[in-house]
Amino acid sequence: MESVQRTRVVLLGASNLTLAFPLVVARLRALFPGPLEVLAAIGHGRSYGKPSRVLFRELPGIAECGLWRALEAGPPRETFALLADFGNDIVYGSEVDEIAGWIERDLARLGMHGARTVVVRPPLTSVDRLSPLRFRVARSLIFPSHRIDLATVRDRVRELDGRLVAMARAREAAIVEQPGSWYGFDPIHIRKARRGEAWEAFLSAFGREPARGASKSLPRADRRALWGLRPERRRWMGREQTHRQPCAELLDGTTIALY
After folding, report:
1. Packing angle between helix 96-112 and helix 150-170, nearest 10 degrees?
2. Fewest Cβ atoms closer than 10 Å to its Cβ: which of 99, 182, 187, 190?
3. Residue 134 burial class via C-beta count within 10 angstroms: exposed 0-12, middle 13-18, buried 19 and up
4. What CA–CA distance (Å, rounded) separates 137 from 166?
5. How confident is the model over 33-88, as pLDDT tens digits?
């Protein structure tokens, strides 16, 4: 029987959450006392509802991954959740109704566990100021096999944002906007120099204050523990791979599970 009362944190997203993951874990540890149970469905190019492939790696859609099974099987805990990075599915060509359906299902599942939830809105300013040339360059570099046009992306981002805000308000979830200053030439990835500021804003929406003197970075041993983590299931170069979860335990007893 577990002797320590853990707080559970569910993280759903794609490349922005993946790039900032060590920073996010450090900030979470500063916000919540004691070891955490972190359940994360993240990954570059991640889709909320369909399998997604980047180079040689394929991951299941967030809505169908093993995180939800782990959440159901786990003990009752105080639970916090953050949802971000909704743009991939638009570029993949999914309709707004379909994307909203996936997210609504996720919010409902989290609600069943009493999760205090934060929804990060898409970067509307970054999308609005995107020129056709920058869009074509970004699309060819980040989504080379997809040919959706800029006008359609803008319309769907706006529509999805409205749906996200309505769903979040209906479930009393916190909503965080993203200023355009966080983005540069790359319209979908927060600039490295602004990641700390951005994630402090996202995580502060949980309504917690960091402990006095808490570090905003991880010890070297914990950073090493987060290198090369493998999700529960993925396809790598066409071959199915599975990995036991949680896949890492940090010095303070925080466990990390990836799905």
Report:
1. 30
2. 182
3. middle
4. 33
5. 889 999 999 999 999 999 999 889 999 999 999 999 999 999 999 999 999 999 99
